Predict the structure.
Amino acid sequence: MKSKRLLAPYVAWMTVFTLIPLGVVIYYAFTDSITGQFTFANLSNLSTYLPIFLRSIFLSLASAAICLVIGYPVAYTIAQANPKWQRFLSMLVMLPMCMSFLLRTLAWVAMLEDTGIINRVVSSLGLKPLPLIRNSGAVILGMVYNYLPYMITPLYTVIMKIDPRLIEAAQDLGCDHKRVFTKVILPLSVPGIISGITMVFVPAVSTFYISQKLGSTGTTMIGDVIESQFKTAYNPNLGAALSLVMMILIFICIGFMNRFTDSEEEGVVTP
Amino acid sequence: MKKRLLILPLLLALLLPCLVFPAAAASNEITVYNWGQYISDGSDGYVDVIEEFEAETGIKVHYLTYDSNESLYTKLKTGGSTYDVIIPSDYMIGRLIAEDMLEPLNFDNIPNYRYVDEAFKNQAYDPENRYSVPYTWGTVGVIYNTKYVDEDDVGGWDLLWNSKYAGKILMFDNCRDAFAIAESLLGYSLNTQDPTELRSCASLLSEQKPILQGHVMDQIYDKMIREEAWIAPYYAGDYLYMLEENEDLGFYFPEEGFNVFIDAACIPKGCTNQEGAEAFINFLCKPEICGENLEYLGYSAPISEAKNYMDPEVAESEIAYPSDEVLANSESFSALDLETSQLMDSLWLSVKTSGSDTTGYLIAGAALLLAAIALTVILKLHRRRKLARRGISRRTNQA
């Protein structure tokens, strides 16, 4: 009884600020913007936005993958460091997040643009300015930069908690370093990898500011479209429909990823 | 019991100022919602309009900005915030009047309205002059950097489609202004409601996309001044402002025709302090304030007397006050009907989202999806095999 009562504030919070708004989103997605009548029109012409959905998913999966490649060694190194350093290093990882997200993105703009810092150096060397900004690469770079801490933190937490006795046992049984890593450490850090990818992918796929600042006119992401529906075009119904589809897609993606954890967790030995 | 009795008056004492103060404060505060970079703020030795107004009337001003008529409209429509003074453009005023979103003004509180030139009264967007007081007027033309742009290429709107300057061209990030450019190029009226004409405008705008640096509004100042971009269509008044920061910038009125607009102060429905708002509008019409404010802005004054308070060079500028001959080539916007506005909105969205490299992403997306499915299947099989093996070993152990 008591434990249920403790849940009450959260349940109330959930209902008021998550469930009811979700209902409103669904309501808007299925109604017409002028007459307010029930319609499938918002959802039926979503096929026009399919390339944008795919582009968003592609760009954010790519960023998640790069975050993993960069983040894993970092998390591993921090987890192996001595405890005093660990706190300092993980604080360093979180440090950029103390600054505004918008400011960090604008700083990249100032660096990458044609008259930006990097290109000024390049042209002072007598070379032609490099096309650093306004392409998919710049968008991915912006997302990797902004979301990397979300990858490192869960990875670090999981790797840190791996029981050192398991590693010792593997070594005793004749595993070399490489095999210890592939047979013990990597499988045991899969939950961290999954939650890292999820935590990078989900915000990245619905991001809207980075693609506007660092991307070209051809790298519009679904977040930009949704934003424009609420900011300038004033069509909240279409915006809601797009958000709903985005939400479903994210759920599917998370579902996919959770499959990996399920399969691996059975292999984990609980001491 | 006693404790509770004590708490009650305490609570009341705490709540009392909350009840009294907002009411008292409201009569002394207004919220002004204006375009970005659209009022003299005391920089470069010019007048600080808001500070002067506060000093003269004692009314406190909260000042907020937007970057296009469309975002103003959305903000008003979604509600949640109240504004006392807004400064939309002609066509948006027409739309707001049609949708009953403006409060009629009490002109007894705006005596300075008498200074406004007759030419700016009784406009199509507000034929009876009940809702709006002109703030500025101006034109749209092309701003370009004379250092990089060949003089042979300038003259018309087609400069914005010239692939020689790919990556250095900016475009309006609002549908009405962007469509107006395509409409001028194709020789249509800026107020056309013909869906096929609008569609051909949209395809013209999509064609332009690959060579654009981006769709922007207020960012244009920064990008043009720092020479990150070389060509941009924008409001003539802002050109004069930018010219002070970068003297290599040039400007011309495109030969195909261009838009002339009036931005006017209005009071939206739901305003909390109409008298204060009217006092502010009245203050803006004061010739000396209007003169100094618009000298700073570079936009054109709808009050001839204000020119007496301007630097004569600005007051005689061919760009801020083009001759009738030049203006003969211009056209003003009128409000479009709801259906056309919505069509334009959706066409604009399709312009903005049309991708140049769609097929590549389609293939990549499909490949990724397939890879993910394949991986799941393999993992599942792997797990099943593992389980099967373990199952056997367990059985053997038991035996």
Summary: The two ends of chain A are 32 Å apart (CA to CA). Residues 50-265 of chain A form a domain with the MetI-like fold fold (CATH 1.10.3720.10).
